[in-house]
Write a structure and sequence with these properties.
heterodimer; A: alpha+beta; Alpha-Beta Plaits; two-stranded antiparallel sheet; B: Fumarate Reductase Cytochrome B subunit; about 70% helix
Amino acid sequence: MARMKFLCDADRCIECQACVTACKNEHEVPWGINRRRVVTINDGLPGERSVSMACMHCDDAPCAAVCPVDCFYTTADAVVLHNKDTCIGCGYCSYACPFGAPQFPRTANFGTRGKMDKCTYCSGGPETDMSQAEYVKYGSNRLAEGKLPLCAEMCSTKSLLAGDGDIIAEIYRERVVTRGYGSGAWGWRTAYGETVTV
Amino acid sequence: MTRTFLSRLAAALAALALITLVLPMAAEAQVNPRESSVNEDAMFEALGAGGTVSGRVTIPDQASGNLIVPDNKGWAALQGQTLHTLSIVAVVGMVVLLALFYMFRGKIRIDGGFSGRKILRFNAVERFAHWTLASTFIILALTGLNLIIGKSVIRPIIGEGAFGTLSAWGKVAHNYLAWPFMASLVLIFLLWVIHNVPNRLDWQWLKMGGGLLKKGVHPPARKFNAGQKLIFWSVIIGGALLSWTGIMLLFPGEVASAADWQFYQILHALVAAALSALVIAHIYIGSVGMEGAFDAMGSGEVDENWAKEHHSLWVEEVKSTQARNTAQVQQTPAE
């Protein structure tokens, strides 16, 4: 099985937000929930870079470590998923996540949050693959259809890469060698303990 | 004439060529991505320890502008591992200590036996405040402890689905029962603070180990002895800390930053673990650990011999007050 990862080649990102839109549309994500977002660093300054960020599906995921009900699990593809039926909406995962991935649908009394929602790497949840129940809670399951996450598939400049970590790291490494520069595999060091070295 | 015109044209063309060649080169140099683009490693190095990479986002949630916050992993390790272990050690450790104490010392009996005469120790208001505080604290402690250690203690027994439901109800109970807890904490403080001012007697009580370790040793005490004063001030200070941090956790939107929220959560859990351990000891000595002690909070009336042994000065105060009252009543002739 592959070790699935995302890699955003920030030197190619044009901040078009197509990945964000693709994600929202594919999974019918409610308003106010952002499974993926684009952050522009050094905005307006020379050499600014935009990075598309979602759940990085960490090794030893910190969200799973703090979850009081242990609702997280890691799939054979190394994708970090969670069970919304078990989730109590405590919000701990959002304070543990270095990438701001966990999202919460509503704010009621005492800051009560609904069930947590986050990027599923387009691979649904614990329900039967491609079932209606799975779609309603987690969105579509493209991985079960043999497809990669839509955000990366949709990326017009092929900045956002999804797939086996070793393969996308190699693609990125070749790019950096060919063009002579690269701003780094954003988040990799934090999520996996090591970055892509050229 | 033509010659000068031609030479001028040549000079103009040369200048134009120079401009068209040189300017783009200069422009290209300005946007050279190798020169000035941000780089993750360099950025983290520049930010130093605890650095957060952030930028601009186009969505309303401005907090999502934080791209990478590596420090969150530090809190995750504290919450997921350290607090988990500490909470288990605090609670199980205290139970083991009390079990050893029980084996070594046994139940602390009334040396003089029951006298059969009762003295009112805690009136209805005091008992109401105590039991409101006690019942809410026990539920808060159990539901709070469940959030820290339930996943490794209860979940394996009842399964993921049932544990999720239980924890969801536990969270609701924790959020709502916090308010009667805080109200009764204030009431307890107002009712008993006057009796809990430390004085010289407390030092004597502590030096004698409160008479807990030896049979027949009973240091003098007023309404509350030094041990009870320790419980009182721990509950008041610990309860106030729990209330303050708890309110911060209940209204996460009002907390200045995520790092502040993490600090409040750690403080909340640490104080809760310490206070829970202390309250377990308090429950022990107020029930199975000491003969006649439960009546104080049960019926409110304690046996006179128990009172004389554990609160000798308080008994004298009560008796002299009673005597004075009776005397006053007798001195006033009926019309």
